[in-house]
Amino acid sequence: MDHHHHDEENSNESKSLFSTGNSAQEKGFSYVPERYMVPTFQRPNLAPQYANNVAVIDIAALMNNNGSSARNRFRVIEEISEACRGLGFFQIVNHGISESVLEGAMSVASKFFELPTKEKLKLCSSDVRKPVRYATSLKDGVDKVQFWRIFLKHYSHPLQHWIHMWPNNPPDY
């Protein structure tokens, strides 16, 4: 590692208050470090009465030009609102995205996360407002308990406004 890269990496680390590239996930730890252990009372409850209540929302009525009534659109919007207030997430069906597109997106995302850390760090930021951002945890080291995740967030709609900011690597991203 050359001296310049090392300084650049330390600069990124100090700005974001955490050490990307040194997270437990990236080091491949065989155990869960204490900072990733969420206290029992704060963990999601997967008891059957909760786990089976994930809302499945048919969004066909929200699609353009399908002749659905305003009443049907309002009903779907209400279902989404209730799901957000309830469990906080939901599953959508009839979204119109083909299985091949979904599989392609998952494949290229996996390729991105398999890249060397140095390559992923090019998109590293602690600024939650950045339209393209690679980071770990929820508040990048500010929270006492951190989430066991590394993520790449990027805006995508309308595509022409954001695609130029997406990763250049892997080339088929």
UniProtKB/TrEMBL annotation:
Entry superkingdom: Eukaryota
SUPFAM superfamilies xref list: Clavaminate synthase-like
Domain Non-haem dioxygenase N-terminal: from-to ranges: 56-168
UniProt keyword terms in alphabetical order: Iron, Metal-binding, Vitamin C
Gene3D superfamilies given in the database record: B-lactam Antibiotic, Isopenicillin N Synthase, Chain (2.60.120.330)
Residue ranges of the region described as Disordered: 1-21
Protein name according to UniProt: Non-haem dioxygenase N-terminal domain-containing protein
Pfam families: DIOX_N
